[in-house]
Structures are given as structure tokens and as C-alpha cells.
Amino acid sequence: MPSILFGxxxxxxxxxxxxxxAFNKAxxxxxxxxxxxxxxxxxxxxxxxxQKRIADYASSAGQAVDAAAIHKSKSEFFQKSLIESxxxxxxxxxxxxxxxKSKGLKLAxxxxxxxxxxxxxxxxxxxxxxxxxxxxxxxxxxxxxxxxDKDAYTFALxxxxxxxxxxxxxxxxxxxxxxxxxxxLDCVAFPGENTAHHxxxxxxxLVNRLDFDELQQFLLSK
Length: 222
What we know:
Layout: E1 3-6, H1 16-29, H2 38-44, H3 50-60, H4 67-84, H5 93-102, E2 106-110, H6 115-125, E3 136-138, H7 151-160, E4 167-171, H8 174-182, E5 186-189, E6 205-206, H9 212-220
Helix pairs in contact: 1-4, 3-4, 4-6, 5-9
């Protein structure tokens, strides 16, 4: 059965600026004189993994930090912002989920973020989007290797009982596209505010909003 795999929480809600602000709050809490401005953060988003992002930045600055502790603080600030903010679904996401379900297509959310981040985001998006909308939800504890490794997609396809040739992935960043294509999936690039400048040449389709009819045609053409 054809399936649509949403590749990150950023494909259903644009949380990038909330994440950047959470990083900066974490730096302040750990008494670091770092501040990631939007322009430099845009470049960082070409690679996945917040803790690695912190470690790489510290290395480039010649500083030794506890990247895991800083990232834990960042996650706490981000989760608090999800609870307090009115985060809307991205354009066309709700219609795509409803359209897919009406046609009997399977849906998955294939992330390598924490289960708590996913739960809080879906809670913030309720009732427009619910956990029950997805046949499979993949989070960090389900996989050994984060994107751009294909582990998350391989796990999702196994859980769905589907072949990659019958499915499409929707991704908002380059590591996500890399992971999807490594798993044999055709990929629709759906960049957010902070990833719109990325070069999505490896994706088969680039869109600025989701349209279920377009995605269905893309699936049928495979």
C-alpha cells in the first residue's frame, strides 16, 4: 500500500526559530557567551543533530564544553516553548493527512528527535494533528544512527511492512533527503523558513506547500 513518510517534526510544523531561541537560552544558562544569529544558524541546519552541532561549534571556537548537558537544557527550553506557543501546522499538512487517510494510504512520522519532543509538538497541534493519524512514529530511541544514515527510514519501512518503491518521503533539510534516498525512497523537499536556501538537488520534487493531489500523482507515477 502506498505510504507517505513525514521525515521530521519540521515537516509538519516549522519549529526552527523556536529551536534556535532554545539553543541561545541554553548557552546563557550555561554561562557561555555564544549567540547563534539566524544567518549562521541557517548554515548549521544543513546537518542534523543538535548535540553534534554544539560540539562542533565548541571545537571551532577552541572551547571544551559538556555538549550533552547543554543540549539537554536546550531540549527543556524548546519543550517549554512548545507548550507556551501557538504552533500552527505547515501549509497543506492537515489536508494531506486527511487526504491520505481518506484514500487508505499509510502515514509515518520518521524523526530522530526525542519522543518527548514529538509528543509535545503533537499536543500543541491538537486537534488539527493527532498521534493516531500516523501508523508509525519513529523517534531517537528507535535507531542507532541518526540521519543522514538511513536507519530511521529502514526501521519505518519495516514497521509499515512496505517497500521503499511504494512510498515517498517528505523532508525539510539536506541530511533528511540524504537519509531518505539512501533508503531507496523518492523524496519531496518541503523546506521551512530556515532551510529554504538549501540545495535540494537530490530530491525528486521541491514544494513550498503540500498538496495531496500532487503527492498522490507523484506516488502513482513511480
